[in-house]
Amino acid sequence: xxxxxxxxxxxxxxxxxxxxxxxxxxxxxxxxxxxxxxxxxxxxxxxxxxxxxxxxxxxxxxxxxxxxxxxxxxxxxxxxxxxxxxxxxxxxxxxxxxxxxxxxxxxxxxxxxxxxxxxxxxxxxxxxxxxxxxxxxxxxxxxxxxxxxxxxxxxxxxxxxxxxxxxxxxxxxxxxxxxxxxxxxxxxxxxxxxxxxxxxxxxxxxxxxxxxxxxxxxxxxxxxxxxxxxxxxxxxxxxxxxxxxxxxxxxxxxxxxxxxxxxxxxxxxxxxxxxxxxxxxxxxxxxxxxxxxxxxxxxxxxxxxxxxxxxxxxxxxxxxxxxxxxxxxxxxxxxxxxxxxxxxxxxxxxxxxxxxxxxxxxxxxxxxxxxxxxxxxxxxxxxxxxxxxxxxx
Length: 393
Known about the structure:
The two termini are 14 Å apart. The chain is globular, with a radius of gyration of 22 Å. It is 38% helix and 19% strand. The protein has two domains: 2-153 and 379-392, 3-Layer(aba) Sandwich (Rossmann fold); 158-375, Rossmann fold, CATH 3.40.50.2000. The strands form two sheets. Strands 3-4-2-1-5-6-8-7 form an eight-stranded mixed beta sheet, covered by helices on one side. It is α/β, with parallel strands linked by helices. It contains 14 helices and 14 strands. The model is unreliable at 175-196 (pLDDT under 50). Helix 1 (17-33) packs across helix 14 (381-392), helix 6 packs across helix 7 (236-242) and helix 11 (331-343) packs antiparallel against helix 12 (347-358).
């Protein structure tokens, strides 16, 4: 068994989030903890959309310090690693499991769960789960927002890179004049250095949402110029409805009234981070972009992945309760109302809630930075996994 090798497994369920999380984790384990990391992924082409240096057809390749292998049912292990990270309960190949079960000292096995702010996560994080038909045990590892969970993915130097990027942008172009802040505490909105004077820059990275046409209309008829960037393939149905079929392609833009929509080709994770850093408001979805929006320390709107029986609503409410603790009125109410309307896909309510939400970007920006700083006091996800491994040696 290789004492410095870790194997990370991931199957892409939908979109890019699963692959994005696994790729960030694998790269951080290799770069910051000097581990020999193999990422087993079933849809390499999906990851290649955001990591263009990858060959989507190669069964084995090495890129950015990580070995990437195609995950299929024939996947096996010639030499078992010291640690296995099973991403999001994706399941391990049967041949791989058989070799683990036959080993006198099988790898330490983590089941990396989906991120949730629900209180029950604290009680089950790190618990062992023996497999009934094999002499193997796996440990449930829950990312989260408290010291009783596994933390969040956060690379070393991330905040310094963010602030340095914004400071460089500030030096390159003049700042926008402060916008009136209707929130508690007074003063102007905490505009990111380098922002332009003539309106808002937004990022819209969401799941299909029926509220969007009404929100687009409200933005186009508003008093403020808005530049909204969408990754290609996002909100296509809503754009088709609102633009009557005239949907721009990647690299193109369209302007209606005060709203300019720009379709951006998919880019690297680092480029996406910079986009979030420089934006006045970020609409994000799922898990990976959700976490990156919090590290951006800007106002944001989260749309969790829709689940059966409205399970995602519980996740949304749990996070809102945790995130808004200490947030003063009227920012607290404005966030709850806008997030609720947007996730209910109620276009009329979302458009109606926009002015009040826009008016509290000042306190939301200050709150977002304080929130990110508090989270950064906790161990990051990769460091927590490595520390647990060391404690088992």
